[in-house]
Structures are given as structure tokens and as C-alpha cells.
Amino acid sequence: MAGFRSPSAGLRALQPDAFGADPSGERMARIRRSPHFKDGVFQNPGGAARTRPSGSPLGFAKNYFDKESRSRRAPTAPIPVHATTLADIARPPATGLRLTWMGHSTVLAEIDGHRVLFDPVWGERCSPFPFAGPKRLHPAPVPLATIGTVDVIVISHDHYDHLDMPTIKALAGMDTVFAVPLGVGAHLEQWGVPADRLRELDWHESTEVGGLTLTATPARHFCGRGLRNTQHTLWASWVVAGDGHRIFHSGDTGYFEGFKDIGAEHGPFDATMIQLGAYSEFWPDIHMTPEEALRAHLDLQGGRPHGVLLPIHWGTFNLAPHAWAEPAEWTADVTSDAGQALASPHPGEPFEPAGKVPADRWWQAISTPIARPWREGESSKPTPAPQGDMDLAGDR
User: Fold this and answer.
1) pLDDT tens digit string along 330-350?
2) Full-prediction pTM beyond 0.70?
3) Residues 115/150, Cβ–Cβ less than 8 Å
């Protein structure tokens, strides 16, 4: 790959520019003109979202650092990564649509003759520092240098587990387009992506890349990479439509009624990639539980089971107090109850939504038993923590 640089070298040294760059000039002027930017910050649909742990700092720390809790938040054996080869992803999909979940929120989508890479993260840690922060629980299934030609790279927002500086620097040498939410382009230009290869969109704006239409759609989350979070970069979900297929990538988001509007305007979808990990009662507004993710999927599909739901944002990094495999197990349960098709691939396992969809619960062999209290008539919703914000820095 021309211009490729391995991200590992960047991870072995300090990363002084990992915080990125604040928008300025015409980019900042465009941000101020956005209808979603008010009172100096981007606004969430449905009102302000709690973005940091609520309740007692002691209660959160006890929950997170408890010995039993720590043991549940990691697999009991190595995660079985699919032995994906270059040939697996070089052969065109027979049905015109193939998805390969690389772990966390990274997905390679091959759609109607084009290749889209969502939220590429090949780094060892989602952190500004190579020596601290959440570390990968499994290796990247495919070396970045062998992933081949990509038509467009899509970024959902600027948190470290979705926007990885070493990976972006490695990809900057590719002759490809980057589709990003408004303001995020400042980071990419800082890291070597030419301005003429950036498509920077506000919610409801679209861009054409080859035969694909990419639309930035709303999400309920937040942004920021540094200790001084200016809230000047937008977060988004994404719709990608080709000649014959439509797919949706949620990015990071809490549940909100806007999924119905996205589905009505852009759906139904052949596949949705829905974030459903790193949820917690300590930050209930910015990530979704499995039940909420299923609800979002059905909203996007007009209220009926349709297409395939691919869970993302779980299994690769330890970012929340819940058990490591809980998101996958609970999602398999609730989708089965609803009669909704679920894809549960190993990291790196390509599949075609219109073909044979991986559905085995492979995580059960390497995880501690997972309690499902709602099976006994109890609520599946976590008990709300006492209110009162606490200032606990950290990316989710």
C-alpha cells in the first residue's frame, strides 16, 4: 500500500499530538452556523445527555475496581479471532454486501462494489498515551497494511476508541476519502490527511463517493479528546446507500426517538451496526443496553424485524463495569425473543447479511456465567445511581 506507515511505531513513543487540533477559521465559522450548535457547544437531540458518571465517586470506584467485577470484565481465555486472509476480503461478495467486524466499532463494509471502513482502530490502546488506558483484549484480525483499497473511511466521532491517531496517520497515505462529522476534520488535518480528501458533514448532510451516498445522521453522545473539552466537534451516526443496499452505523449513542425519523427517511436497512456495549447506570444517556439497541434497530426498520443486526462496541476494550460478554449474551436473548436476525461473528469473520449469518454464542466458552435477572420477572434496567455529577475524566 503506497504511503502506508505501521501504527505500531507511533504506539511505542509518546504522542504529543494525539489530542488533535481544535477547529478554527472557516471550519469554526461553519460550526457556529450549524443549527445544532447553540450556547457555544453542539446540542444533543432530546436535550442534554449525562456524559460522566453520576452518583457517588466512591460507589462508582467500588463497583469498577471490585475484585469480582474485574474478573468478569475480561475473557477467561484468549478471544478466538477468525483467521481472515486477504483472499477472504478480496473476493467480491456474492450478494453485493459483506460485513467484517474487526472488533469494537471497526467494520469493513463491502457494498455494491465499494469498500467502506468505519471507525478504524488498529492501535493497542484507546488512549492518548501508549503506556496507559484501555488495552486491546484481542489482536486486530487483519494487518492494516493488507486490508487493501478502501473507497471511503467513515469516522463517527473523536473519542479515542473510534478515532485512533496512529491508525489515521497510517491511512493518511492512502488515496481515499474520509467522511467525518463537522469539526473532526481539524484532527485529521493535524495528522496528515489532506483537506481535499475530507468530507465534513453536519447532521442530515450527504456526500457522494463513487456510487455511494453517505449521510451523517443524529446520535446522542458527546465529543472530546483532551482535558479541556471544547465540545466543538460533532458526533454522528451514518447511513451508507449504494445501488442495491443500505446500511447503518450507529457510532456511539444513547437511545432516542430520532431513530424512527432516520428509519423513515433512509430505511429500511439490509444491516444495522448498533453500539450496545460500555453501557452503565452511571452514564445512562450516551450508550445503549441490548434492549435499547434492539429497540433502535426496530425503529430504524419501521418497527418490524428486518435486515441483520450486527452488535458493535463490545468485546475489544474494557470500558464499563458490566461483564465482558454480557452485551453479546443479552443481545442474543432479546433478539431471539423478538424474532430478529442477529449476526454474532468472531472478530474478523466476514459474512453476507443475505447469506449464511454467523449465529453461535462463541463467547460462552471463554466468559464467566452471565446473570439475566429479567428472566425471573425483574427489570432488566439498571437501578439508577444517586444523582449529582462527579468529575471522572476518561473516554467512553
Assistant:
1) 999 999 999 999 999 999 999
2) yes
3) yes
